[in-house]
Amino acid sequence: MAHTLVFEHAIEYLDSPRNVGITIEITLIRGNRRRRIQAKIDTGAEYCIFQRDYADALDLDVTSGELITFDSAGGPFTAWGHYVTIESFDFQHEALVFFSDTYGFRRNLLGRRGWIEHVQLGLIDYQSKLYVSKLQ
């Protein structure tokens, strides 16, 4: 039985030894502050997690958020949760995201809660193609 899916956006992503993973450009928004960043889609991450610097750029008092400890392959780390607006492609949504407790966190991750739950994704990895639509 064949199935048909329709997507609003199709992009080719660069996946190389220097740029591992699926990276897209997003904008984090809080009030009138906006910050464009590169983030990796991570279907194994429960939440969206970003570098501490971006909380500063959005003028967030990081430690006033919800504290959580994450377990990762690199070991446990703590992060603080805040609601922000995420803009990707041509749509926006509000989400609870987490900012690393320290400034050494090197990745920005788009996880299941906060981003993936708001989109319809299609992936053809051997062609480096990502298909995305806003979840209706």
Lay out the secondary structure:
Elements lengths: L8 E4 L10 E8 L2 E9 L7 E2 L1 H6 L8 E5 L6 E12 L2 E10 L8 E2 L8 E6 L4 E6 L2
Parallel strand pairs: 3-8, 4-7
Antiparallel strand pairs: 1-10, 2-3, 2-6, 5-6, 6-7, 9-10
Summary, kept brief:
This protein is mostly beta strands and 136 residues long.
Quaternary state of this entry equals single chain
How far apart are the termini? 24 Å
Instruction: Classify the helix fraction into a percent range.
Output: under 10%
CATH architecture: Beta Barrel
Largest sheet: 7 strands, mixed
Q: What is the β-strand count?
A: 10
Give the uncertain stretches in residue-range form. Answer: none
Number of helices: 1
What features would you describe in this structure?
The chain is mainly beta. It has one domain: Cathepsin D, subunit A, domain 1 (Beta Barrel). 4% of the residues lie in helices and 47% in strands. The protein has 1 helix and 10 strands. The strands form 2 sheets. Strands 2, 3, 4, 5, 6, 7 and 8 form a 7-stranded mixed β-sheet that branches. Strands 1-10-9 form a 3-stranded antiparallel β-sheet, with no helix packed on it. A hairpin with a 6-residue loop joins strand 5 and strand 6. The longest helix is centred in the middle third of the chain and has 6 residues, at 52-57. The chain is globular. The protein starts with 8 loop residues before the first strand and ends with a strand.
